[in-house]
Amino acid sequence: MKLPQYSKFSPITVAVKxxxxxxxxxxxxxxxxxxxxxxxxxxxxxxxxxxRNYGCHLDLELLAKLKVIYNASLDELxxxxxxxxxxxxxxxxxxxxGSKSR
Length: 102
Description:
Blueprint: H1 11-27, H2 31-38, H3 42-49, H4 60-69, H5 74-78
Helix pairs in contact: 2-3
């Protein structure tokens, strides 16, 4: 999880994004249908589900919608958590990624 491609998101965010995609696929929804249910565009859903540096961050309203739409608990969305709440698992990197300014 220390790879540069994950540097925009904390490990917990990456895990939730993977779970969001898996929930949609398990429910049998296409990208278009999943986007319609969440009230976002297809492009926004792609950004929500992607774990690469260009994806978007998750917000509480989105997590609440996912819980209702997929009948999933937040525990199911978040997965197993480390006992230490100071763990790097919960920290979003703040460093600049991508090209450097000159």
